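Final paragraph of the annual report: two paired records, presented back to back.
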Amino acid sequence: MYYIRNILLNRTFLSVLFFINLGGTIYGYLWYEFQLKITPPQFLLFVPDSPTASLFFTIFLGFFIFGKNIPYIEALAVTTLFKYGIWAVVMNILTLMVDGYLSWQGYMLIGSHAAMAIQGLLYTPFYKIKLKHLAFATLFIFHDLIIDYVYGMMPIYGSLDQYMNHIGYFTFWLSVLSVFIAYYLTIYRHNKLRQ
């Protein structure tokens, strides 16, 4: 565990991770380009979920490299990275099951989004999240959930449209799980370690 901690805190490793996430964020926004063009302006912030999650983590890394913490960004990063990372993995696997085929981009999305979820969790010992920061992140992800499944702004996954009600229900509970995991790994565990 000590060895892993040293890697996670290594300045070179952090810099490489920063640029990987920055590149992934840019690619993610480009991937959403078509959907963003047809999205009403008031919903633009809430459509590209995964690149916004990796943007939060990129901002966290940028400050963390210089020894700074931004708890609101950290809370947004850990909850959204886990939620949208796992969500994209599940959606691509479902696409494979429904269509019987997945493009190379689909497999790439499975790998990159699994990595998103994992990296957010790996850095939980270094976040300075308190309950107010997590409450803010919780409001954000549930507000996004409503925008997606009440106002119909969810990402376009053609063959899965017929399952949208089920996907919305799954996404609700994934949101709950994301908040619970963030709470347990940051606030609860940090309080236990102090005792």
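The closing record of the year follows.
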Amino acid sequence: MHLLYSIALSLLFLALIPYFLYQAARHGKYAGSLRERLGFLPSSMRNDGRKTIWLHAVSVGEFIAARPLISGLKRAMPDHRIVISTTTLTGQRLARASRSNDFEGVFYFPFDWRLIVRRTLNHVQPDVVVLIETELWPNFLRQCRISGVPTVVASGRLSQRSFSRYSIARGFISQVMEDISLLVMQSEADAERARLLGAKPHQLLVCGNIKYDVVVGTEELEPEHDIGRRLALSGHAHLIVAGSTAEGEEEIVLEAFRIVRKTAGLEDTRLVIAPRRPERFDEVAGLIARSGFTLGRRSQLPPPDNGNPMSALTPSPPFGEQKPSNLPPAAQVILLDSIGELGELYRHATVVFVGGSLVPRGGHNIIEPAAYSKPIVVGPNMDNFRQIVSDFTEGNALVQITGSSPETLAAELMSLLTDAARAAALGARALAILDKSRGATECTLRAIRSVMRPT
């Protein structure tokens, strides 16, 4: 079965070569990472004789979720070397920008062919591999088992949709499950789906979701380091932050924003839009400009002025105009065309909309705004975070709208912008649920240590 999988993977790779070339030419993807994906890692990744923990986080969301676990691993095993791999370019950029004493290197996860995987494993020589959420790469997991390297799926989740897809090849997936040392799942439902796919009871452990253990900075930042203050968003009474938006959502959000600003008392409302995918930044900038709102892009913000670190972003002119005319001193819509700063902007929001939920993308993580005690609105499509959404809705700590129209979204945004008591109570309940649900990281740490080879 593994041979058939490798052949199918090779055929798929060949079929996708035109797509890879397009992405490399248009967005700078893949070209710079090819050597590492082929297993040719820099010398700095070579094992230096210390015990090594290899943690894999697919992209930005998984890396952010893994931060408490990375810090916990370093505290528990300070003499171990921790290295991080990612699959996506955005995840790689954030991990590299977040380099700290907790981990010592970042590289791209290898293509799932045996020779490439073997080359990577021989270079890194890990004592354990930790895969955040559910990353089932058959050849990688098989080579780890053959090499005697234990593998742990941490904060594992299996949505009903993923379970249905895996069930099509249940016989093969059951073989893949045998190669995993331990599956540390988010919920009993996730564990049961893994069991139905072939995981044995001794392989399964439920620890909860490590995303609940996210740590956010609540201390006051220096003005030059506070991106919200530099964008003139700090203290603004009516600020909507739309985070991790997907294609097809920005138009809905902008139209809802237009409705909000027509409401008496909300004419000064401002909006931050943070698209999930960096390659869409220019596309979304065009949408905002054509909407008629004044646009400011985070990427246009100059370095802090030593004399005036609070300087606001100068708005861009409406689409088609060369020079602004009578524009306000701060843009009506800010495009957050950067990576890793969305969480910091949530602290300044009056209300937060989390994207990927008005369109069928499965939604995105609501934990970061909850950690800042913010009222959160999501759309009907939150399948990727079913358990979290269930926890929050049961605790009356989340607004999930049933439709995807601008009018429906605008109605909830206006309610929370005008009813400060309701917004504060919603945010307080969100933070309370977060505090009550913490602890998955410590449970996961114990699980990882239990499968590691004795020192």
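Confidence is low (pLDDT under 50) at residues 306-328. This concludes the annual technical report; the extension proposal builds directly on these records.
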